[in-house]
């Protein structure tokens, strides 16, 4: 956990104690201020609040309560406005303690299922992931994001090594879904040409139906135990070929971001445009975004990041709602969710992300 994560968690914990100490009217006023912000993005003043509260309070009494809420860091006055908005700490406290999470509608549930199933068409896992991101983006009017291990998302059918000359070969990987990937591998010096056929036959006798990660683990174990009937140079072609597909940690991650244009729909002022510009830069910071999504992979259920609780969103003031999804063996293989302004419809988007993650988990092999 980074410095900003610790700082945000500490502030939230301190405010949680204060929130429990609030009386009923203070909690109600705080709740109304946050709900108004989530709905309109505008500050709300004491006069308007006094008209909608379930208890009879004068504007002056409401102002006194707002002053108390401001002193403990739950709300603030933007610029010279007489109204108040929730602070990041206040918004976190609302989401954690006062938010009433509903459920997605039957129509939304049906749309998600229809989009994900795709009318029965045979599709690769990458298609499912992209469809999930686009679908969440469309329903939430924010950016959809999906992260998955590439080798987790591909079951192997066959491999072939093709000699390119000058000490190189083309390694061709064919998945069960028909997708083909090519990588160039460097051949050990002195390798006979017949070794490429030997390596191809050896792999194809062992990898069918396995994921890339499982195939690499199995082959390395066989070679380590000297059960493989391969000479040393051919064994190097086999292991280095699979390792080339596995790649470095960042290369193994398949990151999909959909629907950035939705983030421009609610821009009302130049400062909003600047916030979105910073968010676009955040989305382009692939390594940082992958690291952030990796935190969600290690958690159970939906996880929410708000503003500077994570350094990635410290400038753009954005929120991320994500959930990990599992494969058929209940192993977490990725994470998906929604990125947008902190003024998200949390009550609607949280169950939407949760349902999509569970549905996607049933579709990933």
Architecture overview:
This protein is α+β, with helices and mostly antiparallel strands and 365 residues long. It has 3 domains: 3-98, Winged helix-like DNA-binding domain superfamily/Winged helix DNA-binding domain (Arc Repressor Mutant, subunit A, Orthogonal Bundle), CATH 1.10.10.10; 106-150 and 252-363, Beta-Lactamase; 153-246, Enolase-like, domain 1 (2-Layer Sandwich). 49% of the residues lie in helices and 18% in strands. The chain has helices at 3-21, 24-40, 46-52, 59-71, 88-98, 106-117, 125-140, 194-204, 212-224, 232-246, 270-284, 286-297, 346-363, and strands spanning 75-76, 85-86, 143-149, 156-165, 168-175, 180-186, 253-258, 303-306, 318-326, 332-341. A 5-stranded antiparallel β-sheet has the order 7-3-10-9-8, with helices on both faces. Strands 4-5-6 form a 3-stranded antiparallel β-sheet. A two-stranded antiparallel ribbon has the order 1-2. Strand 5 (168-175) and strand 6 (180-186) form a beta hairpin. The longest helix is centred in the first third of the chain and has 19 residues, at 3-21. The two termini are 32 Å apart. Mean pLDDT is 80; it is low at 1-9.
């Amino acid at each position: 956990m980074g410095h900003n994560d610790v700082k945000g968690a500490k502030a939230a914990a301190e405010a949680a104690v204060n929130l429990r100490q609030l009386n009923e009217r203070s909690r109600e006023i705080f709740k109304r201020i946050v709900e108004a912000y989530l709905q309109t993005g505008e500050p709300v003043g004491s006069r308007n609040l006094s008209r909608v509260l379930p208890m009879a309070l004068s504007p002056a009494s409401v102002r006194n309560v707002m002053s108390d809420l401001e002193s403990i860091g739950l709300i603030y006055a933007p610029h010279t406005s007489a109204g108040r908005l929730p602070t990041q700490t206040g918004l976190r406290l609302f989401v954690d303690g006062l938010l009433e999470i509903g459920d997605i509608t039957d129509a939304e549930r049906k749309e998600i299922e229809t989009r994900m199933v795709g009318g029965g068409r045979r599709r690769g896992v990458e298609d499912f992931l992209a469809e999930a991101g686009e679908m969440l983006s469309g329903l939430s009017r924010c950016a959809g994001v999906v992260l998955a291990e590439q080798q987790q998302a591909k079951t192997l059918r066959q491999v072939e090594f093709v000699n390119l000359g000058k000490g190189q070969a083309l390694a061709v990987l064919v998945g069960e879904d028909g997708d083909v990937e090519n990588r160039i591998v460097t051949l050990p010096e002195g390798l006979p040409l017949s070794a490429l056929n030997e390596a191809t036959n050896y792999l194809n006798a062992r990898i069918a139906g396995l994921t890339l990660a499982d195939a690499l683990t199995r082959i390395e174990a066989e070679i380590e135990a000297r059960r493989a009937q391969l000479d040393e140079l051919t064994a190097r072609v086999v292991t280095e070929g699979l390792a080339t597909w596995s790649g470095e940690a960042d290369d193994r991650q398949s990151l999909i971001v959909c629907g950035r244009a939705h983030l421009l729909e609610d821009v009302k002022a130049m400062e909003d445009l600047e916030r979105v510009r910073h968010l676009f830069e955040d989305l382009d910071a692939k390594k940082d975004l992958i690291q952030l999504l990796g935190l969600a992979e290690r958690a159970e259920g939906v996880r929410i990041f708000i503003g500077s609780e994570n350094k990635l969103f410290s400038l753009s003031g954005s929120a991320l709602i994500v959930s990990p999804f599992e494969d058929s063996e209940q192993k977490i293989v990725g994470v998906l969710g929604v990125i947008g302004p902190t003024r998200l419809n949390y009550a609607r988007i949280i169950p939407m992300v949760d349902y999509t993650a569970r549905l996607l988990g049933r579709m990933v092999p």
